[in-house]
Amino acid sequence: MDTFFNPRSVAVIGASNSPFNLGATICRCMNEYSKWDGTVYAVNRKGEDVFGCKGCRAVTDIEGDVDLAVIITPAGVVPDFVEQCAAKGIRRIIIESSGFSEGGEEGRALQRRIDETAREHGLRIMGPNCLGVLNAANGFSCFYGVQPDNHHEFLGSESGSVSFIIQSGGIVVIVLESFLMDVVKANKIVSIGNKSDIDEADMLKYFEQDDSTQVVAMYLENIKQGRKFIETARKMKKPVLVFKVGRTSEGARAAMSHTAGMANNDAVFDMACRQAGVIRVNAISELHSLPKMFTHMPPLKGRRIAVFTNSGAFGGITADLLVQSGLEMARLSKDTQEKLSRTGQIFNASNPIDLGPAISMQTFLEIFDILLSSDEVDGLLPVPSLWHPMVIEAIVELVKKCHHYGKPAAIYTPNAVHKTVNYRSKYQVPLFESPEEAVRALKVSYQNTLNLAMKQGLDGLHALLPGGGEKTCAGMG
Amino acid sequence: MDTFFNPRSVAVIGASNSPFNLGATICRCMNEYSKWDGTVYAVNRKGEDVFGCKGCRAVTDIEGDVDLAVIITPAGVVPDFVEQCAAKGIRRIIIESSGFSEGGEEGRALQRRIDETAREHGLRIMGPNCLGVLNAANGFSCFYGVQPDNHHEFLGSESGSVSFIIQSGGIVVIVLESFLMDVVKANKIVSIGNKSDIDEADMLKYFEQDDSTQVVAMYLENIKQGRKFIETARKMKKPVLVFKVGRTSEGARAAMSHTAGMANNDAVFDMACRQAGVIRVNAISELHSLPKMFTHMPPLKGRRIAVFTNSGAFGGITADLLVQSGLEMARLSKDTQEKLSRTGQIFNASNPIDLGPAISMQTFLEIFDILLSSDEVDGLLPVPSLWHPMVIEAIVELVKKCHHYGKPAAIYTPNAVHKTVNYRSKYQVPLFESPEEAVRALKVSYQNTLNLAMKQGLDGLHALLPGGGEKTCAGMG
After folding, report:
1. Are residues B177 and B318 in the same domain?
2. Residue B416 within a domain
3. Do B301 and B443 reside in the same domain of the chain?
4. Probe site for chain B from A96, A176, A177, A222 (most B CB atoms < 10 A)
5. Does the beta-carbon distance from A170 to B283 stay under 8 Å?
6. Which pLDDT belongs to residue A109?
7. In chain B, what residues touch A178 (CB-CB under 8 Å)?
8. Total of domains in chain B
């Protein structure tokens, strides 16, 4: 599987110098924009070079070795090119073309020809109807349509530690754009399209053993093989977030016309996620907003949250949200409340703690220590309004103290979203954009703690049973 | 009531040159930052001038007429100053000081003294424990704590047509900051604090007859007089949005410590909103994100929504959200689908319409006309990704066409929020920041249509009953 993300040589089949040729955008991106420095061949009828990539009339005409083929031609000729790849000895193929199982009987017949060739020659195929892969770490990407204008959104920023399995190109764009102004970035992105061969479970298995991936996030329109998905996900120690479209029959129908898979019954999908120990998210935005809770904060190990704010109304707002989410407002003892009161001019020392508007850096630091060291508190929901330059400096210190004490804080600054986003980017602190998002981050962190416990329990049980062993998931190369 | 927003002369009681004096920030804002050009007096022990405002030792020492007094002293001396105001003939008083009914028995005793003086002399009192008023149109504001750094957020931008009734200062800040980058702005903001006299119903009545207010938005921690609130709101023709804290007992407890009112039972509050024809919103952000649906789009008069997107996944996502919200996916006839298909290279002409990535301005315009003129469609949910400069130009045209056809579009551009916010500000088009927000905007617009119908029905019924007439709401000056 690693070859898909780290090839040394690639053939882009269908790349030519015709106007609006999508394959050409792939050649150009690989050869001109990205730091990846492998060899690229362009396969087209005329055998012409494309953006500096050597042109060939057929795959079998290529002289050097080829690790990976990217096919972006009309659907009708794809099966022939797959056969050429097999003949050339290329065993990894990404088919970006559409017009297969999502496109009626004719498309399904083409798909069957491809499947036969793949089986016969042991090929692994990604797609069809997909964008393929993007590896932010080495700069390799076979996404089509990346323009000089927007390539920095795709390949221009540093790589991070969140890897994505995404069935749709539009979602890739919004994730990468959002990461430009966030503290965590993408590591690898894979768009698996119709999943004729490689599916979400194969990718999960790969990302679990991929050292540079800390969190996996998925956008799915359907799950192909439920048992394989559950059994693979259940073995994962990394947090997995999933958003699935098709909660309603109207949404499911729309998804089906998009990537061809019948969206699964939503209640069944929900149950599968629970069994798999996968965290289901409620909005696309959560796929990029929540991972920083895992990458930039210790895990939440209990339900008891202490709220403190310099903007009184948000005490009540966050208390409502926490309780509605199933977390709890930590009950602070008299002793803790007295300690808090001694730090300075505090309006209200019971949880939610109202700091009032006038406060010093020293007071902030003392409050952090009191709350994070208290065995009455599992995590924090700080709501400090950025009204004074000192506040953002206090937040920087808070992040350090969270790591010191091993307890997380989901920080929401009650300011306009553009202001929050700018501060987050400038000071590289994990700020959330709404109180709802901060509470979700805590909830999801705690959910992951529970999932890990559940997984350990099952493994433990499994080991106790006679003949307990592994019997799942075909190995991937 | 208008005097509170348009005074010609104001006494700021408690403003001095002591360090950290909050009254001084009010004097400075009125005299230095704002375009409001009335007269300001500073009342303090030494009778010293403050930021150019003439100083006096007592209210009764002021020589000219005073329309409005703003009191910001320790709670203990407030009742004396209220008496001085009465003696001077000042009938409008804003008490910003805290320490009254939210502060235990001592505070309640002070409150009783103020109430007696007010009753005796026919004073109208706003607060205590509030920020008072801000009128963006004339630049008048008595908010304390506004600094040179942030005054532009409060008084620097143009005025708009949304007026706010807000029980908390923190919410004011987030609303004004957010409006800096939005297409609609605030008109008047009033922070009514503990509401010892003037309450949310009085303010609703005022905003209903205020020509420059188009939409009223409220943040409430409690409702003081349920019947008065319902009867006043029921008479309103302008949309009223309300967010209330205290859905859970923990949230209610936090709110109580903040502005002293017991938060009402949430189910009762919900019922009151329904009877009052008031729209309950789900998040603070909706108080500033949703009003533009009323100010920048025609009303939604039916449930049937057509979705179109150049980013396939969002067809399914928005279909799910629309159906879950109680709206409907419009069913497009064969005829309409054929018209759509003829406009150009469209992936899918049934609703949700998938435009595919390659599309021309002409195709966009034709699609807008076909959908907006169709009697199968009540409103649009366009999801155009801003991947090409043409797309934002098409959105500008779409807004014009919505007004032409009298049907709304809740536009969501599936891009990072900072990009959407920048485009919205630059092109002055009502873009929403998430698909969830766009669907809420449609839902809320339709809810307002239903509310207006309900109100007409009740009025009609009322007129038919013997002796039907008005018997509510004490008149406000």
Report:
1. no
2. yes
3. yes
4. A177
5. no
6. 94
7. 416-417
8. 3
Averaged pLDDT of chain B = 90
CB contact under 8 A, A324 and B248: yes
Q: Is A151 within the bounds of a domain?
A: no
**The tokens 């020509």 sit on which residue?**
B211
Same domain, B99 and B165: no
Per the omega criterion (within 30 degrees of 0), is the bond before B352 cis?
Answer: yes
Q: Do B265 and B331 belong to one domain?
A: no
Domain housing B276: 157-295
| Residue B122, number of CB atoms within 10 A of its CB | 9
Does residue B67 sit in the same domain as residue B87?
yes
Q: Would you tell me which residues 121-160 of chain A have a C-beta closer than 8 angstroms to some C-beta of chain B?
A: 145, 150
Cβ atoms within 10 Å, residue B35: 10
Closest Cβ opposite residue B251 in set A20, A177, A319: A319
Both B411 and B428 in a single domain? Answer: yes
pLDDT at A206 (0 to 100): 98
Mean pLDDT, range A376-381, rounded to an integer: 98
Please check the confidence at residue B93 and state whether its pLDDT lies above 70: yes
Look at B387 and A150 and tell me if their CB atoms are within 8 Å: yes
Q: What is the pTM of this model?
A: 0.91
Q: How far is CA A91 from CA A54, A70, A84, A165, B140, in A?
A: 21, 11, 11, 21, 73
Residue A259 lies in a domain: yes
- pLDDT tens by residue, B284-328: 999 999 999 999 999 999 999 999 998 888 999 999 999 999 999
Model confidence pLDDT, tens digit, residues B225-274: 888 999 999 999 999 999 998 888 888 888 766 554 555 578 888 888 99
User: How many residues make up chain B in this entry?
Assistant: 477
Reported as type and span, the H/E element at residue A289 is helix A284-289
- With beta carbons less than 8 A apart as the criterion, state whether B131 and B142 touch: yes
Do A287 and A331 reside in the same domain of the chain? no
Domain identity same for B323 and B430: yes
Residues on chain A touching B252 (C-beta within 8 angstroms): 316
Domain-embedded: residue A142: no
Q: What is the pLDDT of residue A357?
A: 66
Q: What is the ipTM of this complex?
A: 0.90
Minimal Cα–Cα distance from A312 to chain B, Å? 6
Does B314 sit within 8 Å of A258, measured CB to CB? Answer: no
- Hey, is the C-beta of B433 within 8 angstroms of any chain A C-beta? yes
- Tell me what the pLDDT averaged over chain A comes to: 90
Of B239, B271, B295, which residue sits at a domain end?
A: B295
Those residues with Cβ within 8 angstroms of residue A215's Cβ, 6 or more apart along the chain or in another chain = A161, A162, A163, A238, A239, A240, A241, A291, A294, A295
